[in-house]
Amino acid sequence: MTFTEGASYSVFIxxxxxxxxxxxxxxxxxxxxxxxxxxxFGKALDRIKNDSQVRVRIGSPITGYGQESRNRAARxxxxxxxxxxxxxxxxxxxxxxxxxxxxxxxxxxxxxxDKVDKQWKFVYLIVxxxxxxxxxxLLESYVPA
Length: 145
Description:
Number of domains: 2
Structural class: alpha+beta
Number of strands: 6
Strand content: 25-35%
Shape: elongated
Number of helices: 4
CATH topology of the largest domain: Nuclear Transport Factor 2, Chain: A
């Protein structure tokens, strides 16, 4: 009976260690490796912050966030879509909100990872200003050579 009890305790201990290791890996991965969609969000937001047309319309500083909500988690979650095209290039599309002291807007951006130089390049970057006066701005557009 003691061998059976010891074996059953060992199974529970190993299962607990496995769950702890999986949780530790998830935290480690989340803290040290930035997800691709957040890299794309950052690149798009930097491009928007440096654009004079956007700064004139909504002011500066410009902030970006995921969804219109009072919920902090919803604001931090960036809606995105990831896929691979027929040539094997990885694409990421993000949609997010921007706000400045004088107005706000929506952003749609798509980037792909070029196989040749391994860099992320914009397919498009569109800013739709909602207030104070509606406008659509095409900041980036990729046309293959």
